[in-house]
Structure formats: C-alpha cells, structure tokens
From TrEMBL:
It comes from Ruegeria pomeroyi. NCBIfam families: transpos_IS1380 (NF033539). This is IS1380-like element ISSpo2 family transposase. Pfam families: DDE_Tnp_1_4. Residues 15-443 form the Transposase DDE domain.
C-alpha cells in the first residue's frame, strides 16, 4: 500500500486507481457547510441574536471569556442547524472557516469555541432556572420579530407531545407504556406556519397533557393584545375542562377531539342506523351537532359528531369534536382534521435537527439542549417562510439542510475581503442570489418616529 502515500511537502495523498489524483487536506480553509452563511444573513436581517443579546445576561466572572454569550449561542444554534447535534463536534467546528464567520467577534481571526467551552455554556451557564426560562421565551420573541415584517391575520395553535428515547440513568427518564420505551416526554406548541412557539421537557411517565398551562398560557398571552383571530386545535389527550375554560376566557376559538363514550353515542343514535339499500362505492359522511355537558364541566358545550361509512366496512367510523366555533359542522371537522401538521413538524425536527439527542445526565441540562434545538429548528423554518424560488419553496427542513447548507466552501482571505468560493452542485449562484433577495424582503419596516 506504499503507493497510496506521497510524502511530499504538501502532505498530499496519492490514490492508486489514478496516479494523477492527489488528496490535500486544508481543514482551516475549506468547509462543508457553506450554506450556513445564508442563514447567518437571515439572522442579521431579522435581528434574532440582537434579541438574544438583550435577554441572555452574561453572569460569567473573570477575564478568560474568549467568546460572548451571543457568540456561544450562535455556535450552538447554527451547529445544530447544520446537523451537529452534540458538542462532541465543537473542536472540529472551532476550526471551520464558515462557523468562525457565523460566530463572529474573535472567532473570525482565531477559533470558535471548543468542546469544553460549549459544554460549560450548555450545562452550567444556561442551566439555572432563571436562565432556562429566558432561553425558553426566546423562541416566541424570535417569532414575534418574524411577524413584525408580515403580520398574520389569524393564528392557529397546535399542541402535541412526543417521545425522546433515553439510553442511560438520566434524571427524569422513565418507562412510558404508550411509546414502549424509557424516555422523556416533551410537549410542543406550533402555529400554522410551522414555527415552534414553545416547548418543555418532561419526565417520561407523565400524561400527554401534563403541564399544558406552563407551555400554552404564555403563548396565548403573547397574542392577547393583537388584532387577530386566535384558533386552537388538539387531540383527545387535551380534552380537559381546564383547557376549555382557559381558551374561553381568552376569547380563543377551539376544536378538540373527544373520546367516544356511551352517552355521546346515544346522542347520535339516529345517525348510526344503517341506510336501506345497497351501499355505494364511496365514503359517506353524516354530521351531527348537539349540546353536551360532562359531569366535570362547568357548563354545556357544543359537540360536533362525524359518522363515516366506508365501502366494505360493517361498522361506521365515529368521531367527536368539542368546540366553541360558530361554523357549520362539516367546516369544523375539516378545520380540526388539519391538526396533523404538528406530528409532521415534530418528525421533521427529529430528522433534521435531531432534537431527541438529549444525552446529559441532569434534566435541567437536557432542557437547555431542547430549547437550543428549538431555536435551530425555528431558524430553519423562518427561511421556509420567505418568498423563495419555486424550486426551493417546497423543500422540507431536511432538504434545506442537505441541499442548501451542506455545500462545500473554500475561504480565501485578503487584506480587505474574505471570499467564500462555494460549490455549485445542489444550489447555483443564481439560486443563492434569489434566496438572498427573498431574505432581504423579510426585513421589518422602520418604526415611524
């Protein structure tokens, strides 16, 4: 195998299948994540980390502080967005020219933060209760900044839980019979744009709706004084009286699925009778609408029922939705059926951002990591909301990561300029320019004096 090596001055490696091919390694000059520069421009246009600078106080003492809190936060967020979900890669990323440029400050001329520095930032500097709360509120503040450039006419909130499997004696981890594993059981709130409004890490053995007040009420309060309609939908796990009362008190419209019971089925007994004659070869849907009060409710509420008869099936499929919407029953059922987008968003977060990677020993430290994953997810979704070129507009977050971020880049430094030479494989120069133009359109209009 001597022919594989070429001990020249350049340290190049020669391959045997073609003697003309030589490999040279220039880690400090070449990056595999050139597309992160687009997201750094998005960060700058929206002023996202300017918000973080005013929220995340730096309580470190001493003079050995090479990087600011905002720089460390950028490295955590952008690293996760590029697929580096753990601090184990920080030593290599510290020498990456794109990551150095993204972090800014001293990192541009020296190095970004090392693995030990990032570890202290994520497990010690941010792990106190006060700092975790500030970090958890940052996602909502970033979303408000995005809405400032294009105010929505309504907001629809969707709450759902998920599973984060664990593989060690981590604090708060427990067996969950529904998921069939030892895990954490986080809770997420999304809006109709796919933005992650808020999330919380919970022990693995809690109910799906446990702790909904701490996650949902701050989100509702953020939109309380805005002139827009507010909607909410959820699965049957969140069909609890306290949630109805909280939404009604805030004048928020809701549609929440209910589990069937004997009383509810008795109210629609007339819809369950099998029609006379040969059944058709298409799905038939019948809707019901009535007032219902459970023993635990403070007042009667409207319940919409849907009865579906499918070809070849003996028994109908029945569903119930409790709601305060004034629309007709079929509109309400169609509105509620759209709530499956939360599950898709959670799946995308797992695949692209890998926010199930919560490997710290303490629950507080893992909560910090989940909030950092949430910020990385939102940063990626914010670009999806821009007026992107048609061929890019339908890309998922995973596609944006693999086809737009993972682009080879070579840095060439001059006295007055830093050039990044990007590979035109998945994204051409023209496409980059169109995306940058779309990012500039997201800049919020100046506030009149």
């Amino acid at each position: 195998m001597d022919h594989l090596e070429d001990a020249g001055e350049t340290g190049a490696v020669r391959l045997g299948f073609d003697r003309r091919v030589r490999l040279e390694f220039h880690g400090s000059k070449i990056s595999s994540d050139g597309g992160l520069l687009l997201f750094r421009e998005l960060d700058e246009v929206l002023g996202l980390h300017d918000i973080a600078r005013g929220v995340l106080r730096d309580t470190r003492t001493g003079h050995n502080r090479l990087h600011s809190i905002v720089g460390l936060l950028r490295q955590s967020v952008f690293g996760r967005l590029a697929g580096y979900e753990d601090v184990n890669d920080a030593d290599r990323l510290a020498l990456d020219p794109v990551m150095q440029q993204v972090v800014g400050g001293r990192a541009v001329d020296t190095n970004a933060a090392s693995a030990s520095q990032m570890g202290r930032f994520e497990t010690k500097v941010r792990a106190t209760a006060e700092k975790r709360a500030a970090l958890a509120e940052l996602s909502g503040q970033w979303i408000d900044r995005v809405h400032a450039s294009a105010p929505p006419k309504w907001i629809t909130l969707d709450i759902d839980s998920s599973v984060c499997p664990t593989h060690g004696a981590q604090e708060g981890t427990a067996w969950n019979g529904h998921f069939g594993c030892i895990c954490y059981h986080p809770l997420f709130v999304f809006n109709q744009f796919g933005h992650l409004e808020c999330c919380a890490l919970r022990p693995g053995n809690v109910h799906s709706a446990d702790g909904w007040e701490e996650v949902l009420k701050p989100v509702i309060a953020r939109y309380a004084d805005r002139h827009l309609m507010r909607f909410f939908w959820a699965d049957a796990a969140f069909a609890i009286p306290g949630l109805y009362e909280a939404l009604e008190a805030e004048n928020c419209f809701y549609a929440i699925r209910m589990r069937a019971n004997r009383i509810l089925q008795g109210r629609i007994a007339h819809l369950l009778k099998r029609p006379v004659g040969r059944p058709p070869n298409h799905v038939r849907r019948i809707y019901g609408d009535f007032e219902y009060q459970s023993a635990s409710w403070d007042k009667p509420r409207r319940v919409v029922a849907k009865v579906e008869r499918h070809p070849g099936e003996l028994f109908p499929r029945i569903g119930f939705v409790v709601t305060n919407l004034p629309m007709v029953p079929d509109w309400i059922v169609h509105f509620h059926n759209q709530r499956g987008t939360a599950e898709q968003r959670i799946k995308e977060g797992k695949q692209a951002i890998n926010w199930t990677r919560l490997s710290c020993k303490g629950l507080a430290q893992n909560e910090v990591r989940l909030q950092l994953h949430a910020l990385a997810y939102n940063l990626g979704v914010f670009l999806q909301g821009a007026d992107l070129p048609e061929e890019v507009a339908e890309w998922s977050l995973t596609s944006l990561q693999t086809r737009l971020i993972k682009i080879g880049a070579r840095v060439v430094r001059h006295a007055r300029a830093i050039k990044f030479q990007l590979a035109e494989v998945a994204a051409s120069g023209d496409r980059f320019r169109l995306i940058l133009t779309a990012i500039q359109r997201l800049r919020a209009p100046p506030v009149p004096s």
